[in-house]
Amino acid sequence: MSVYSVTQEPNVLVGTGQPIIFTAFDTETANIYPNGDADVWKFRYICDIYIDTGSGSTKVARLKQLPNAENVGIFDISRIVNSFLYPTLVNQGITTNSIHTLPLGDLGDPFSLNDSSLETVICKFGEEFATTATGSPTVHADRHTETARYAFQASVPYNAGVNYAFGDFISNGTTKRFLTYMPDYSIQGQTIKVSNNEWRTMTFLNDSATCQINRLYVQIFNSSGVKLNSNDYFENLTANGGANPSSEVDTDPERLLFVGVGVKNLNIQTLVSDMQISGHATAAYYEVFGTNASDTQKTTKYRFELDGNDCKYPMKQFAWLNRLGGWDYFSFKKKDVKTLNIKRTKMKEPLGTFNAATYAENSFDRGSKTLKADAVYSESANTDYLSEIQAEWLEGLFTSNNVYLIDTEQDIYTQATGTTISADAPNVIPVVITSATFVKKTSVNDQCKIQYTMEYEYSKEQRVGI
Q1: HEC string of the chain?
Q2: Which of 84, 284, 318, 347 is at a distance of 20 to 30 A from 277, taking alpha carbons?
Q3: Predicted model pTM
Q4: 275 & 381 share domain
Q5: What is the pLDDT of residues 125-164, one digit of tens each?
Q6: Where among 269, 291, 310 does a domain terminate?
Q7: Count of domains observed in the chain
């Protein structure tokens, strides 16, 4: 009697930006290949893929694979699963608003669930074969069922190995990260400069079995390092837009969360007024990290330095889908050039009137006519000086296929008074990065401070006259 088993399998958390491998083996295949077996013909391994689409698990695909030279069937399900995952674009608490402006429109809920950014995947394995050389194969499904995996749109470098467990992003210790490669303060000693009109979210895994962000801390400090706010955390609860990882996580939307931690996001939220940056006149920087319900730190700390909006150029803030399925943000604060690129389609038409008693020409007759004009804005933006670690992180923006410009130009900074006339509902505009290369710069190789220029264009054509 044959024994069916899966001899290679991925971890519980799987990223669809890399192979998700299952290896199936039936001991009877040892008799089939290469010599054949009188009772088994046309043998194929079967992998049925089930995804929880919100109303229970649904079979979305069936894969079939011939045994290889070692008599096993190797399945990579990453591309199929990825086709059922989507970036979360809107706040799930109020779906008319962008995720980047969380909690705009729902000011008491600083957290948001995800919208198909993470899905439960279950694979069931079987086989098919015929009992005669000319007979049709019979399917023998569900001979082995794997436990649930949680898939999200993430990838890691090749040197991380085939079966990466995403342990660095499971919040159970002081070195653990949110779903971002943004430089942190605790380990790398890096500070991210932010302006008063910047928006930002952070993304984190919230699986009840392993992840322990019960509270999201935002601690505000003055330039001397004195802490200014005594009420300094959000409770991760369903009542606040999230889900307590210890007791409230039951569905896929609750297993990956977003929280608003940009200066603007914090200033508009009303859940904890002491966490509004604008309420502390001497604020110089703030730190963000997660803890469990007992206030034990469970992530690294990220530090954001307030730079006072002291830029004479219009700030260009971008949000991009990073390599871990979360959103990252960066602001270009130096020279910006905006160009309207116009492409015209023309036709020629005959001059004069040919359908009258006499031929005549008018001065306003056209010989050449524009049938259509397409107009697309393109821009180039320049960074401030960066550290080598920050420059490496920025590579993710240049290579992302999902980038947005957060239009903060309505926010007018008045240098004379040091105040900002605030527009609290910015446009979030999809753009396409057109820069063809990204040269990794170091201060040693380039003998200068590191800066980058990024070229991009608006994904929508401008409306023109018809």
Answers
A1: CCCEEEEECCCCEEECCCCCEEEEEECCHHHHCCCCECCEEEEEEEEEEEEECCCCEEEEEEEEECCCCCCEEEEECHHHHHCCCCCCCECCCCCCCEHHHCCCCCCCCCEECCCCCEEEEEEEEEEEEECCCCCCCEEEEEEEECCCEEEECCCCCHHHCCCCCCHHHCCCCCCCCCCCCCCCCCCCCCEEEECCCCCCEEEEECCCCCCCCCEEEEEEECCCCCECCCCCEEECCHHHCCCCCCCCCCCHHHCEEEEECCHHHHHHCCCCHHHCHHHCCCCCEEEEEEECCCCCECCCCEEEEECCCCCCCCCEEEEEECCCCCEEEEEECCCEEEEEEEEEEEEECCCCECCCCCCECCCCCCCEEEEEEEEEEEEEEECCCECHHHHHHHHHHHHCCCEEEEECCCCEEECCCCEEECCCCCEEEEEEECCCCCCCCCHHHHCCCECCEEEEEECCCECCCC
A2: 318
A3: 0.87
A4: no
A5: 999 988 888 889 999 999 999 999 999 999 887 776 677 8
A6: 310
A7: 3
